[in-house]
Design goal:
The protein contains 5 helices and no strands. The chain is an all-alpha fold.
Length: 143
């Protein structure tokens, strides 16, 4: 092929920043071109959430029990955290960035809290941490 055939088949230049001449930038999208947010998740997503919640619960259950035992807490409390983290959290609305499940990194923190303060105040610590997370979410501190 020769050079003129290659350039003739090339598409015209797009509206690139810094281009001058007859090519202008496209107008920014107006209010009509933006997608409107829907009323919420569709029916298919709501039907899939409970089954996904059960799967998360079943997969995370051994890790929940392992974290509880490694933290010096009875294994039964690991079961409770698995139920709350997997089943109850799955029924609540969330976001694509939400993580609801056991985190092995918390083992060290829970072990330290249990050895220093005992098992009694552990529920209060968890409640305070949850209230702080809700407060930070309401204040939109994560953006």
């Amino acid at each position: 092929m020769n050079a003129t055939a290659d350039t003739a088949a090339a598409p015209p230049p797009q509206n690139l920043p810094g281009r001058r001449g007859r090519h202008r930038r496209a107008a920014p999208p107006g209010p009509r071109s933006r997608p409107r947010p829907g009323p919420g998740p569709g029916k298919d997503a709501l039907r899939a959430d409970p089954s996904a919640s059960v799967v998360v619960f079943l997969v995370a259950l051994p890790l929940c029990v392992g974290v509880a035992v490694a933290s010096g807490v009875p294994a039964e409390l690991g079961l409770v955290t698995g139920i709350v983290g997997g089943l109850v959290t799955g029924l609540l609305p969330g976001s694509s960035l939400q993580v609801s499940g056991p985190a092995a990194g918390l083992t060290v923190l829970v072990l330290e809290a249990v050895t220093e303060y005992g098992l009694g105040p552990l529920g209060v610590f968890v409640l305070i941490a949850g209230v702080l997370q809700l407060l930070m979410g309401l204040l939109r501190l994560g953006r």
